[in-house]
Automatic annotation (TrEMBL), chains A, B:
The keyword Hydrolase does not apply. One of its GO terms (molecular function) is transferase activity. This is Glutamine amidotransferase. Pfam families: GATase_4. InterPro entries: EgtC-like (IPR026869), GATase_2_dom (IPR017932), Ntn_hydrolases_N (IPR029055). It comes from the Bacteria. The keyword Transferase applies. It comes from Lonepinella koalarum. The lineage of its organism: Bacteria, Pseudomonadati, Pseudomonadota, Gammaproteobacteria, Pasteurellales. PANTHER family: GLUTAMINE AMIDOTRANSFERASE, GLUTAMINE AMIDOTRANSFERASE YAFJ-RELATED. Keywords: Glutamine amidotransferase, Transferase.
Amino acid sequence: MCQLLGMNCNTPTDIVFSFEGFRRRAGLTDSHSDGFGIAFFEGKGVRVFRDNRPASLSPIGDCVKQYDIKSLNVIAHIRKATQGSVDIENTHPFIREIWGENWVFAHNGNLHDLPDMTGRFCQPIGSTDSEAAFCYMAEFLKRRFSRKPVEQEIFAAVQEVTEFLAQHGTFNFILSNGEWMIGHCATNLHYLTRQAPFGKAQRIDDESVIDFNDYAKDGDKVTIIATFPLTKDEKWTKMLSGGFVFFKNGEKVKEIIGVEKAIIDDGTLGDRIVNDCS
Amino acid sequence: MCQLLGMNCNTPTDIVFSFEGFRRRAGLTDSHSDGFGIAFFEGKGVRVFRDNRPASLSPIGDCVKQYDIKSLNVIAHIRKATQGSVDIENTHPFIREIWGENWVFAHNGNLHDLPDMTGRFCQPIGSTDSEAAFCYMAEFLKRRFSRKPVEQEIFAAVQEVTEFLAQHGTFNFILSNGEWMIGHCATNLHYLTRQAPFGKAQRIDDESVIDFNDYAKDGDKVTIIATFPLTKDEKWTKMLSGGFVFFKNGEKVKEIIGVEKAIIDDGTLGDRIVNDCS
């Protein structure tokens, strides 16, 4: 499997504190060493860095750290390959143009028996299940709407195609068009929002401490989405299986809580629908 | 206008010598300071670096130099903006997926009254004429062939769509799918192929000298395509208006020589078709 990291904010923010902890999991504190990628939105544009070397050791990773890029939306991924070779074309995040926007997508999971995209308008370049699923999603959305619809319709359509794709396996993902960020949980996805009053946080992966008061100002809202929490003294929300969350300007716009995996009396693993709040 | 640089080889080669001269033209030896981009193919994948700062001063440019990436196909662009703001989304090279491949495109020129791509499958993200033209090309090719055809058909289709787009203004470009590289000249494009026996070359932009014998081995073939020559003691071929050239593995596969602009007896500027060789 892999790990995901996303950031959605209302003010351009650097992701160095989170990314430096996250990339230690690529060879130092965990074994997600099969390449990494990180995409920064800058307006409608995307600056993307990818390497097939482990993020913790990559000079490209060092460049990201030094460059101190500030962005409203960032998606990063460290890979532990399940399908597809350890090559650049199989390195997340994947990017496709949809309705004249860059859409950036990173996946954690494993999907099987996806529809064949040969001969379709959106075709995968590499050999991962992840890119194939994203291409299916892109083609689905473009065929459903030839021009960008309102957000409510986008979210509903993304949910619909996700429900279809999730039938093919484990489908945790983070998706952004540079305005909003969507997280979908199949097995593991957590989020938190940092806003005033700001406090300190200690990274799980190397004990490093930050005081956000030194960096943030009143009114700033910064949401972090990650496969597993990155700090030990902040309150992370663990998403449930099938959960969807939509952030914009660092704020939660909508959430579908999803299904809690529960141990049923007979010892089997059952599903319990929690609720749907928006 | 802008300047273009492309490299097509039969062995993974670093482009640092050429790129270091080229990027001096972004603020030091010339005024192409409105951002830059460079894309390196690695197999079917692409590693791309973009900055809206001048290439000569950019830390991203320094990172490219330090990282010493070797590639069979590279396309770089330094921008002097004519249409579109100095933002990442307007920074060449542009990338689109066509038939399950990354296609990388950089343009030098100015196009007007291009077909409106609103509502089409391939839409521009930024506001440049260049990206709009590339989207038109991508949609044209995908609609003509749902699966990748043989190279001869690809080249013929690219020529056909280029003839249409070139009616809209000045259309110098370099295009690659990671296997081959196409150069099209409207006003300025030059190329040369380095192969045994290798010699020395001196960069035009800073007098720096390289001896390719120290880096290349017998059998290596490295073609460089550039808006203007980068070295002063090598024989660059100046392409003619309407000229097309197709390289693969560092070798010229096909060339359409194009049209030489000639002064006609009556003093007007006329076109003289030179020939068509393949």
